[in-house]
Amino acid sequence: MANNPNKITKYRRPLNLNIGMLIFATIFVYVVICVIMYFRTDHVVGYSVKEGSLSSNSIYKGIALRKEEIVTSTDAGYVNYFAREGERAAVGNLIYTVDETGRLSDYVQANESGENTLSDADLSELKTEITAFINGFDRTDFSDVYNFKYNVEGTVLKLANYNMLENVNALNSASSSSLITSCYAQESGIVVYSIDGYEDLTLQDMKAEYFDQDNYEKNHLVNNELIAKGDPVYKLSTAEDWSIVIQTDEETAQQLVDEEYIEVKFLKNQYKAWAAVTSYTNDDGDSFVALTFTNSMITFCTDRFIDIELLLEDERGLKIPNSSIVEKEFFIVPKEYVTQGGNSGNYGVLLETYNEEGNATTEFVETPIYQETETEYYLDDTVLRAGNYIIKPDSTDKYAISKTGSLIGVYNINKGYADFKQISILYQNDEYAIVKSNTVYGLNVYDYIVLDASTVNDNEFIYE
Known about the structure:
Shape: elongated
Low-confidence stretches: none
Helix content: 10-25%
Mean pLDDT: 82
Number of helices: 6
Number of strands: 32
Oligomer: single chain
């Protein structure tokens, strides 16, 4: 068969390997290997040591416990209060009246001058309530608005009634009817016009559910309301000693009890006071701490839930992350066996060695000191070995290295390698520790340490 002159065959160019292609392929493989090794290797990240503090202060919402007595009405009718809420009433002071017909209320309205003036003290009381509401208002708890409304209405009405007492003769004349009963304090105490069912609680009665404000109900005793005989009419706090109970875990409760007395700041008005500490754990395993005060009860007599801050001592020093902390073993030797020598004049020991002929000789071995006590030094265990003998300078006394101890520290990388530095922890939480600064063998501010101590080995060189 004749060849077809019109058929075109594609020419296959042979692969010509040259030195440039080989170099490129080698570099490419090297780069791929480096990238893989980079992602599979733990990277050393540094951390700059700075001064700081870890505040152990804690903010809690506590329940106020006071010696409270609920006074009930002996008559039915319309109640009108004449004692100011939050003020102390002495024995025999007029607290309220009960008007069976409502005539007293009509008389008060008929004798109004059209405008009541408030004294500076009255205005100050209203301003205090408004300021306290603004500072403590939580948009997620709108019920506080209603509580504030009742408090202001009650305060204004009580102030108005209190001002009407200036016209004593007219008021006595209006109260002369047997249908109006005046009720006086039977004992002294702070008057409060609300009840909530927490009046008889003690530390031993506390349960976790009592701290749930969603289930908390406060019943305001409103002026000029119709009441029945035996209804609660006011509450009297009769003792200045009172407590705030907070809920904590058992460990925290024990720490607070160990303090015995703790300074407390009230977030409502930034007032500070010292409290005695006691604790109680109920059958459910819930721990509660009672902070008992001997003053300031009158300031918070209308509050059941109080936000407080425990002003525990702040620890200041060098602030480091807990991930930097490592524990390392060291040899412990008597101080008299450590000397200075070598070309650098650094500290070390005279190590007993043997030459080729088997004769004993001594060799100065530099061993950094990492900590000391009154009689001993902590020496690096990477140079010495257990069972080595060291010689006491200017003596033939020997000491067999065997005693070991551990130190807590971090790896300092100022010199480009992981150099262990012992630390003394002053305070520690879940993330950071505060360590003592300017110690002989420890850290200084602005030292550079390894952020994660598990990523390096002792004396390992750190490459940037």
